[in-house]
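Dear support,

I submitted the protein below through the web form. The confirmation email said the job was done, but the results page showed an empty box. After a refresh the structure appeared. I'm attaching both so you can tell me whether what I see now is the final result or a partial one.
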Amino acid sequence: MEIPKTSIGSFVLIRAEVATGIVLNFDDTRYFHEGENYYKVFDAMEEVKTFIQFDKKRSTVEAEYTIFDHDGQFLECIS
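What the results page shows now:
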């Protein structure tokens, strides 16, 4: 799995199962190295955190959320 490079000032969000660490697509299925549904790009950190709160309520899987900057550098992990 590759952390995508995005435009300066944007943020990349990737989800993984808490129990296994397996990366998840945003439809709660496991990511198996195909497609691009395993990450989302946001223009502001506030948007990322708002989405995480929404997704925690919606998702059927207990997930941890990892945030990267536009260059793929780790910023934060939220469980």
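Response: this is the final, complete result; the empty box was a page-load delay. The beta strands are 11-17, 23-24, 39-42, 63-69, 74-78.
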